[in-house]
Amino acid sequence: MKRHKTNLVNALKDRAKAEGFADCRIAPGHLAPAAGERLRQWLSEGRHGDMLWMADRVDQRSSPVGLWPEVQSVIILGMSYAPETDPLALALQPEFGRISVYAQRKDYHDVVKGALKRLAQWFVHQTGSEVKVFVDTAPVLEKTLAEAAGLGWQGKHSNLVSREHGSWLLLGAIYTTAELESDAPGRDRCGSCSACQIVCPTDAFPEPYRVDARRCISYLTIEHKGPIPSEFRRAMGNHIYGCDDCLAACPWNKFAETASVHKALAQRLELSELPLAQLLALDDIAFRALFAGTPIKRTGRDRFVRNAAVAAGNSGDKGLAKSCVRLLDDASPLVRGAAIWALAQLDENQFSLEKRTRLKFESDESVLLEWEVSAPTMR
Fold first, then answer.
1. Among residues 50, 136, 203, 347, which one is catalytic?
2. Using alpha carbons only, how large is the chain's radius of gyration in Å?
3. Which is nearest to 310 in space by CA: 103, 102, 97?
4. Residues 280 and 171 placed together within one structural domain of the fold
5. What does the pLDDT look like over 58-105, one tens digit per residue?
6. What is the pLDDT of residue 61?
7. Are 18 and 163 in a shared domain?
8. With CB atoms 3.0 to 4.6 Å apart as the test, which of 14, 80, 130, 201 could cross-link to 177 if both were Cys?
9. Which pLDDT does position 37 carry in this prediction?
10. Are residues 159 and 21 in the same domain?
C-alpha cells in the first residue's frame, strides 16, 4: 500500500510538471496551531489595513480542516514567474512607471486555476477522492502550507522563498480527502541576510518575517481604495502597481530560471517600460484595452491613474505638469486629488494659479483638503 501511494505521489508530481508547475509538494491537512495564532495576532494589530476580508472566516483560514473538515492532505503547487527583465531597472528612470513583474503577464488566477483544475481532475480519476481547488480566492494560508510541504520557507519579507526558484512562485492548493504522505517541511535559510528589509522604501517590516500591509507599496497601490497617505507618497517613487523591491533583493533569486516559467505566463515586455505621460492620459476604455487579461485590469482605471499621478509628482519632470492639470477635470475625486499633489510637486506657480481658479468649483471634501495640504508652503 505504501509503495502504491509513493507511486501515486510521484505520478502526481510528474503530472504537475507537465501542467507547467515548477514544484509540487504534499502538506498535512492539519496545520500546527501556531499558524492560526500568528494570523490572529497580525489581524489584532490591524496590520491588514483595509483588507477586511482577511479577518473574515479567520477560523477557516487558520487551518485546512477549518475550511473543510474532511481534508486529509493538501497538494501545494508553485508556478514560477521569474522575470525576464531586472525588476529594479526603472528605479533610476522616474519618467517610467514601475509595474510588479507578476502583473506584466496574463492574470495568474486564470492560468494557475486552469492548471490546478486539470491536475485535480486527473487526481480524482486516479484515486476517487474528493478535492477542492484554491488560488488566492479563499481563506487559505498558501505560504504557510507551502512551507509545511517543503516548497520553501517564509522569508523575512514574509513571502515564500524557494532554493530553486527564489521569491518568484505563484501558489495554488488542492485540498483532498486522500491520505498522502507529507513532504518534509521547509527550513529557514535566510540566515543573517536582511536585504529585503533594507530595500523596502516605506519600512513596511516592523520586524523580520512580519509585514505591515498599511505601509506596503503593493497594498497601497492595489488594495487601498482611498488617497495614498501623504507620508508614503515620496517613498512610492515611480511604483504604480505593486512593488518587487523586497522580492528582487533576495539572493536566492540567482537560482531562478525563466525557462521554468509557464508559457501562458510569458512576460509582456511592453508593460515593463511604460511612460508616465502615456499612463496619465488613460481613460477607462484605453486602460481596459492596455491591460486586458492582466491582474491590473481588476484594480480599475481610477486607482491606477491615482498611482501614476503620484509617480509623476515624484518624477521631477515639469513636462508632466500639463498632464496633471488635465486630470484636475477628471470625474474621479481620487484622481483629481492625486493630480493636485503631483502638480504641487512639479510646478508651484501653476499649482497656485489652478487653485485660485478651481477651488470655488470643487465640492468633494477629500479634494478640497488636498488643495490645502498639498500647497507648497505646507510641505
1. 136
2. 23
3. 97
4. no
5. 554 557 888 888 999 999 999 999 999 899 999 999 999 999 999 999
6. 53
7. yes
8. 130
9. 61
10. yes
Please give the pLDDT value at position 33: 45
Amino acid at residue number 27: A
Domain limit, last residue, from 137, 155, 176: 176
Contact between 173 and 75 (Cβ < 8 Å): yes
The answer to whether 155 and 190 have CB atoms below 8 angstroms apart is yes
**Within a domain: residue 14?**
yes
168 shares its domain with 286: no
Do both 281 and 143 map to the same domain? no
Structural domain count, the chain: 2
Q: Tell me which residues of the chain have a pLDDT lower than 70.
A: 1-4, 32-62, 138-139, 377-379
Indicate if 171 and 281 belong to the same structural domain. Answer: no
Active site residue 136: yes
pLDDT given for residue 62 in this prediction = 57
Judge whether 127 lies within some domain: yes
Is 188 contained in some domain? no
For residue 59, give its domain range: 2-82+105-176
Say yes or no: 144 and 15 in one domain. Answer: yes
HEC secondary structure over the chain: CHHHHHHHHHHHHHHHHHCCCCEEEEEECCCCHHHHHHHHHHHHCCCCCCCHHHCCCHHHHHCHHHHCCCCCEEEEEEEECCCCCCCCHHHHCCCEEEECHHHCCCCHHHHHHHHHHHHHHHHHHHHCCCEEEECCCCCCCHHHHHHHCCCCEECCCCCEEECCCECCEEEEEEEECCCCCCCCCCCCCCCCCCHHHHHCCCCCCCECCECCHHHCHHHHHHHCCCCCCHHHHHHHCCEEECCCHHHHCCHHHHHCCHHHCCHHHCCCHHHHCEEHHHHHCCCHHHHHHHCCCCCHHHHCHHHHHHHHHHHHHHHCCHHHHHHHHHHCCCCCHHHHHHHHHHHHHHCHHHHHHHHHHHHHHCCCHHHHHHHHHCCHHHC
Q: Which of 176, 203, 236 is the last residue of a domain?
A: 176
The 3-state DSSP class for residue 173 equals strand
Predicted TM-score of the model (pTM): 0.90
- Statement to judge: residues 172 and 296 lie in one domain: no
